[in-house]
Amino acid sequence: MKKGLPIGINTLEKIIKGNFVYVDKTKFVYKLIKNYGYYFLSRPRRFGKSLFLDTIKCIFEGKKELFEGLYIYDKWNWEQKYPIIKIDFVGGNFTEPVQLKRKLLKNLQEIIKEYQLSVSTEDELPNIFRDIILALV
Question: What is the rounded distance in angstroms from the CA atom of residue 61 to the CA atom of residue 57?
Answer without folding.
Answer: 6
